[in-house]
Design goal:
The chain is of the alpha/beta class. The protein contains 4 helices and 4 strands; from the N terminus they run H-E-H-E-H-E-H-E. Strands 1-2-3-4 form a 4-stranded parallel beta sheet, with no helix packed on it. The chain is globular, with a radius of gyration of 14 Å.
Length: 117
């Protein structure tokens, strides 16, 4: 059972994540190396992908993605028109969770490399 304080701290974590990065609008690579992403973290990544026009690479290797977090990231990928490289190596939850991501990468006109090893 999640307590209200836990929900607030997770929300603040995602706001902090985006808040720190917003001062780097020319960011070209985002590497998230975290065991498990929360839904709020994935929303922040999706927002970063949509808002930051220069991001060329997203690396979520060694990160456990579930259906909800994959959808949030995929939504951001749909709007990340400059993305060239997507890496998702050593993902313990490969399979159906990546279907949405792969589908949305098809709409990325500049994608050059997709690494799912």
């Amino acid at each position: 059972m999640m307590q209200f304080d836990d929900m607030l701290s997770k929300q603040r974590s995602a706001e902090l994540f985006y808040g720190v990065l917003k001062y780097h609008p020319n960011l070209i690579c985002l590497k998230v190396n975290k065991g498990v992403l929360s839904g709020d973290d994935a929303k922040a990544i999706g927002k970063i992908l949509a808002d930051f026009k220069f991001i060329r690479e997203l690396d979520v290797s060694s990160t456990s993605l579930d259906v909800n977090t994959s959808k949030e990231i995929a939504d951001g990928l749909m709007r990340a028109k400059q993305l060239e490289i997507f890496k998702c190596e050593n993902n313990p939850s490969m399979g159906k969770t990546l279907d949405t991501i792969i589908y949305n990468l098809a709409f990325s006109p500049k994608i050059k490399l997709i690494n799912l090893s």
